[in-house]
Amino acid sequence: MNESLRSILITDLPARFVSELIGASRWAYRDSYEAVYSDNNYDEPEKKGLLPYVRRARIEKKIREVALDAGLTATVEKNSAKNTEYTLIKSGRVALTVSKSFDRGSLPALARFREQYSSINQHAAQIQMLPVLSMPFEASLYGVIIHGSSNLSHNELGFLQIGFLDSRKYRWVEAPIDLEDIMDAQSLSSQQKDPLIQLQEKNRQPRLKEKYIATDEIIKKVTL
Q1: 137 DSSP 8-state letter
Q2: pTM listed for this prediction
Q3: How many secondary structure helices (H) and strands (E) does the chain include?
């Protein structure tokens, strides 16, 4: 994996956004499944067909809410053909859209707006060599938040990742990065920077051992 892409996500995505995004996505999967399958107006075939649309509506709305709560820009845009709406999140150098994917690390279905935005990733694989990237959309990189259900149950979130699309070929620049990995890295970084935590860690350092030496007249305590 290109570590610089992971580092940009860790730096440019607010920790609050990342953690709440994971929680909101889990909620959206459970809530959409319950809403569809508890409705007796539909039989099983209709429920299976309806679930993806309800789930998409739930998860995209929640992601916009989470982004706005974290102080990010979250808008609903139309593709260049004006026939599809999609969610666009902007955070620092990163622009993000949201898509369902079949499996962990797999590409989402082709879409005009994803092809449109992936042009800003033309130097993503060489980001350390070319720190100043093309910015046609006021962002340096375009990522896709991909999500999918668990293999065991359609009412549970199976994965949540961010991948960067190659601008020339429809493939990932690098393997998509798990949101939980980003959250863990941000949490570790925050702990390392927190003065109180640093003081606590310092106080946990093993103290010098004390050795007692017996003599005929007195027990002398010596610090080693």
Answers
A1: T
A2: 0.76
A3: 6, 8
